[in-house]
Amino acid sequence: PTVPLAPAPSLFERLGGMANVRAVVDDFVSQVSADPRSKRTFDGVNLSRLKASVTTHLCSLSGGPCKYEGDSMALAHRGMALTPEELNVMGDYVDRALIRRGVARTERDELKAILDRLAGEVLNK
Ligand code: HEM
Question: Which of 34, 68, 102, 120 makes the best surface tag, with the fewest CB within 10 Å?
Fold first, then answer.
């Protein structure tokens, strides 16, 4: 039998590591916060700060070496009454940003599954 010599790379590594995750977040947060279908909650939000926070969050969620210390998802989105449509708009921009950075289908689907599991914590708060 074959004994694996090294653990399988984390999703974080397969996404291309910190540089790629940061670039993807920079891309999709810029798009979501500018699109008329999804921009209403971004008024007055410090986008650089948000991008840094979302990068750390995704790094941590995908098994990377980060520790997310921001607010819970329910608290972060409290009072926004986010809709499934807004979440879909974001999901599409995430996917397109990943494609632009050369991330393959398997990894895109894995990240989508992680984000889908958080939907209940961000919608309708
Ligand atoms: C699964 C989906 C989502 C995840 C995982 C997520 C993640 C996050 C994270 C990590 C933060 C930063 C919280 C902090 O720094 O304490 C944040 C803030 C924020 N999110 Fe989301 N988010 C999601 C969906 C959305 C959607 C669909 C929208 C709007 C279309 C949105 C709008 C915002 C805004 C405006 C903030 C900034 C709040 C502020 O600084 O006052 N989020 N989100």
Answer: 102
Taking the model in full, what pTM does it have? Answer: 0.96
- Among candidate residues 53, 55, 48, the one with its CA nearest the CA of residue 75: 53
Question: What is the distance in A from the centroid of ligand 1 to the CA of 7?
Answer: 32
Would residue 1 count as lying in a domain?
no
3 within domain boundaries: no
Q: Encode pLDDT of 25-40 as tens digits.
A: 999 999 999 999 999 9
Q: Does ligand 1 have an atom closer than 6 angstroms to the CB of 25?
A: no
**Domain with 95 in it: what CATH number?**
1.10.490.10
- CB 66 less than 6 A from any atom of ligand 1: no
Tell whether 6 is covered by a domain. no
